[in-house]
Specification:
Blueprint lengths: L2 H5 L10 E4 L4 E4 L9 E3 L6 E3 L2 H4 L2 H8 L3 H13 L43 H34 L1 E3 L15 E8 L20 E9 L6 E6 L4 E2 L4 E4 L5 E4 L6 E2 L11 H11 L7 E5 L1 H10 L3 E5 L3 E2 L7 E2 L2 E5 L1 H9 L9 H23 L3 H14 L1 E3 L5 H12 L6 E5 L2 E3 L11 E3 L3 H10 L7 H9 L1 H7 L13 E6 L6 H12 L4 E7 L8 E4 L4 H11 L6 E3 L10 E5 L22 E2 L8
Parallel strand pairs: 5-18, 6-13, 8-19, 22-23, 22-26, 24-25
Antiparallel strand pairs: 1-2, 3-4, 6-7, 7-8, 9-12, 10-11, 13-18, 14-17, 15-16, 19-27, 20-21, 24-26
């Protein structure tokens, strides 16, 4: 269409720009747009064609569009006869129709259509038509997408298993604040090929592999702490939901027992494992749990396309897992992946602690793969989501696909370099013969420091420490109190008063200081005059080195140190008052500024298992 005709697009129906000339049998572009003109000069043949107004309303072409019936047809034939022989060359030829005007709007500035003319429906502009079709198409896509998303979520929801663990899960449905998630690997032997990994009569399973996964409040870092299955602990009484909705209290262990018995024994559910971890960690709240079985390892490792692992030495376990891998890097999935995680008899000392290191390497590698390869592949992402939801049993707080997606988004905010794997510090069980030690107990010095760092949301990668140091100048000034020389433990003199409200706290602290820390010049002064909100250590200027040493041992913050103004006598002791923030002998009041050396593994580092 030329510029002239485009300029009139709002007045002329675009479909009428080209018309059939019955004189020539050709379609011609009409350049004049006045419906009042009586003639149209054909530029191609020089033929003048009358175009009266009656012709605009009649003729076989216009009549078919108007549908006015026989009266319109009669008027049309009468008009044809009156125009003479010039228009009568053939009875079947129709005149070149004139341009049709659009209906003028009614009201001010508009005109009503003449009597007898059909009221034509106003035509939408081409721009409006495009918008209409585009909007309609988008609506269809969005509805289809919503329906597809609903079907997808409904499918994943159908995969999930949930367990009501009552108040053992403290998180509810909120994803705010620090998150502590207990990941339980259930060693139930159901499923094809799984009976070879242990007692085939075990139909409920135990807490065979357990990780406490802590995500910081600001989502800058995360720590995964392995809890050995052979750790000797005391299992508390566990209120457990029954199928009929009632609650049954399952008695705790008599004395100490293996940690893996916190689930599956005597009807204990995952809530009991959560309560056990809370107990051994000194009161750490657990927000949620996720439990997987052997089959989950096989399906998930396959869904991600295999997991890369590395060995410094070959592994050949002929008797149990049947794992046979040479030295070097491998990509394993399915049965091989499960054998890799379950294997310990193929390791040098056949230790569960060494197997934990293998499991940490495997999980760190899987996390790297999920972040770097899977998230960008819709096919892999669907396979992983399908496999994960089929494998997972979770608490009600995260018991839908939508809630799990929200949790995954929170976990996805953490940078790989700030995800740390470690094992809770343990030592060989001293109650077992040296050559037959099969179980472990908590390291009473290092384990409380680790749990206290988690409790106080302190990063093992020191991300949080750096941020706090940059923002809190007052804390930096107070920290100067802890800068300087330290006395020897044997030279520390201190009187201990119990203002904590915990019976026996002062005596337990004295026993710990004397027997485990070498502070032999410490004295139990019984109860303080009144209950104290905070633990304090009061000392003289010439006792500063002793105060720093004791603060290191007990994990006292700088705010707990109260320096005096006058020097003390040579044998005069310092005064330690235990407050309500005191958690127990050997348990720091606040976390240490540096993580204890417990062999951390960072998720972004590729290491080979020994």
């Amino acid at each position: 269409m030329d510029a002239h005709s485009r300029g009139q697009a709002d007045e002329i129906d675009p479909a009428d720009q080209w018309v059939l000339n019955p004189q020539t049998g050709n379609y011609e572009l009409r350049l004049n747009h006045s419906a009042e003109q009586s003639t149209h000069q054909s530029h191609s043949r020089g033929v003048t064609t009358p175009a009266p107004r009656s012709a605009e309303r009649s003729g076989s072409a216009e009549g078919s569009r108007s549908g006015q019936g026989s009266r319109t047809a009669q008027r049309s034939r009468s008009a044809e006869r009156s125009r003479g022989s010039e228009r009568s060359r053939t009875a079947t030829e129709a005149p070149v129709p004139g341009q049709r005007r659009r209906r003028a709007p009614e009201g001010p500035g508009g005109t009503q259509p003449s009597a007898g003319r059909r009221k034509r429906k106003p035509q939408k502009s081409r721009k409006k038509k495009v918008l209409l079709w585009t909007g309609g198409t988008m609506a269809v896509v969005l509805v289809a997408g919503a329906a597809g998303a609903y079907a997808l979520y409904d499918h994943f929801n159908g995969n999930l298993n949930t367990i009501d663990v009552g108040d053992a899960a403290s998180g509810g449905e909120t994803m705010e604040g620090p998150l502590n998630i207990l990941i339980i690997g259930n060693d139930v032997r159901t499923g094809e090929g799984n009976t070879s990994y242990g007692n085939k009569d075990n139909v409920t399973g135990h807490a065979d592999t357990t990780f406490l996964f802590h995500v910081s409040e600001d989502r800058t870092n995360a720590t995964a702490i392995s809890i050995p299955r052979d750790l000797k602990i005391k299992i508390p009484d566990c209120p457990t939901k029954q199928p009929d909705g009632s609650t049954k209290v399952i008695p705790g262990s008599v004395g100490t027992t293996k940690f893996n018995e916190s689930f599956g024994v005597d009807g204990r559910d995952p809530g009991c494992t959560m309560r056990t971890v809370k107990e051994l960690s000194g009161g750490l709240e657990i927000n949620h749990f996720m439990m997987v079985d052997f089959n989950a390892v096989k399906t998930l490792s396959t869904a991600v396309g295999g997991v890369k692992v590395c060995l410094n030495k070959p592994i050949h376990d002929k008797s149990y897992s049947k794992l046979n891998l040479p030295k070097g890097e491998h990509k394993i999935m399915g049965e091989d992946a499960l054998a890799f995680l379950r294997n310990r008899h193929g390791l040098g000392n056949e230790s569960d602690l060494d197997r934990i290191k293998m499991q940490q390497q495997f999980l760190a590698s899987m996390i790297r793969q999920l972040k770097e390869e899977t998230l960008d592949s819709p096919t892999k992402l669907y396979s992983v989501a399908d496999a994960a939801t089929k494998a997972l049993t979770v608490d009600r707080g995260i018991g839908t696909a939508m809630k799990l997606t929200t949790l995954a988004k929170e976990l996805g905010k953490v940078d790989l370099k700030n995800i740390t794997f470690m094992t809770v510090p343990v030592v060989d069980n001293p109650d077992e013969p040296p050559n037959k030690r099969a179980t472990v107990v908590l390291d009473q010095t290092k384990a409380p420091q680790v749990f206290n760092m988690v409790q106080n949301d302190i990063s093992f990668t020191e991300v949080k420490k750096k941020e706090k140091d940059a923002k809190n100048a007052q804390a930096q000034a107070e920290a100067k109190l802890l800068q300087g020389p330290r006395a020897e433990a044997v030279d520390v003199r201190v009187d201990v008063y119990n203002g904590s409200g915990i019976t026996g706290a002062a005596q337990n602290t004295i026993v710990w200081l004397q027997n485990e820390q070498g502070v032999t010049r410490s004295t139990n002064k019984s109860n303080a005059p009144e209950k104290a909100a905070k633990t304090t250590l009061t000392y003289a200027p010439n006792q500063a080195d002793q105060a720093r040493k004791l603060a290191d041992m007990m994990g006292l913050p700088a705010t707990a140190l109260k320096p005096g103004t006058t020097n003390a006598g040579e044998r005069e002791p310092m005064t330690l008052v235990l407050g309500s923030d005191f958690k127990g002998a050997g348990m720091p009041i606040t976390g240490p500024v540096k993580a204890p050396d417990v062999g951390q593994v960072e998720a972004d580092k590729k290491v080979c298992a020994q």
